[in-house]
Amino acid sequence: MGSWSDKFSVNIDIIDEQHKELFNILDKCYELLLKDKENDKYDEIITILEELKEYTIYHFQTEEDFMRKNGYSKFLTHKFAHDAFIEEINKFDIYSIDIDQKKSINDILDVVSNWIKVHIMETDKNIPKYLKM
């Protein structure tokens, strides 16, 4: 998918490294979509979805700790966006995934890639502007 590039950098090393890992998880999802169309992919989809959930929560905690520590003035708005995204991820129904696996993979890719790219480009890029460092 070639999703990460320097245009997504927020110039904060720990956040950039974690964003790269989120893109790596998306790449796994995209590779799964292209992989062997006939085989059952349910277990792999669930594994990727769980990894995405766990890593996103970990990343958001890191980012929020960084913002609090450095006096980020738009913290509550940013945290609200994080919480809304976690809710969005939690809406994926593990039972429905098995019914139409290809659609499920595409849905995960659409929701996550669009959100991550927009959030990084429009919200996370503002972090350095509003820090009291």
Summarize this structure as a short list of keywords or feature phrases.
single chain, 133 residues, 0% strand, elongated
Present the secondary structure layout:
Layout: H1 13-34, H2 42-69, H3 75-90, H4 94-99, H5 101-122
What features would you describe in this structure?
This protein has 133 residues and is an all-alpha fold. It has a domain at 52-133. The protein is 71% helix and 0% strand. The chain has helices at residues 13-34, 42-69, 75-90, 94-99, 101-122. The chain starts with 12 loop residues before the first helix and ends in an 11-residue tail after the last helix. The model has no long low-confidence stretch (mean pLDDT 91).
Binned strand content = under 5%
Helix content: over 70%
As residue ranges, the low-confidence spans are none
**Major sheet description:** none
Radius of gyration: 16 Å
| N-to-C order of helices and strands | HHHHH
Family: Belongs to the hemerythrin family.
Keywords: Iron, Metal-binding
Domain Hemerythrin-like: 12-126
Pfam family, one: Hemerythrin
Question: Quick gist of this model?
Answer:
This protein is an all-alpha fold and 133 residues long. The radius of gyration is 16 Å and the shape is elongated.
